[in-house]
Amino acid sequence: MDVDIISEEENPMLHRTDVTFELTHEEATPSRLQVRDSLAAKLNKEADEVVVRTLDTKFGMRKTVGYAKVYESADHATEVEQDHMLERNKIAEETEADADADAEEA
What is 2-105's CATH topology? Predict the structure, then answer.
């Protein structure tokens, strides 16, 4: 799966960058989590700082156009994003798991 960045727009008020990208894939459209991980790797960010909002694949095509929000930190993402988007991107669960692990260590 190849990820190409089409456009990036800074949004300093919300501590994020809005990214439009294009995926080229061989098989079926990749899952949201696979796309999130690939996009995070391309942008040198952690996976929990990337929220994939939309993926649009035309029927029969091997290209997908998507839109994502890349935050400065996972905390900024959890403060701003809607709960259902955090759940779809598996961010809320990771943050809660980290908090539970920290609580157990204390």
Answer: Alpha-Beta Plaits (3.30.70)
Q: How confident is the model at residue 63 (pLDDT cuts 50, 70, 90)?
A: very high
The full set of domain ranges for the chain reads: 2-105
Measured in degrees and rounded to the nearest 5, phi and psi for residue 47 equal -65, -35
Q: Which residue has the tokens 């960010």?
A: 45
Print the SS3 string covering 43-62: CCCCHHHEEEEEEEECCCCC
Residue with tokens 């029927």: 59
Sheet holding 63-71, edge to edge: 2-11, 16-24, 63-71, 50-57
3-state secondary structure of 48: helix
Q: What is the pTM of this model?
A: 0.80
3-class secondary structure, 44: coil
Do residues 20 and 7 lie in contact, with contact meaning Cβ atoms separated by under 8 Å? yes
Environment class of residue 63 by beta-carbon count within 10 Å: exposed (0-12), middle (13-18) or buried (19+)?
A: middle
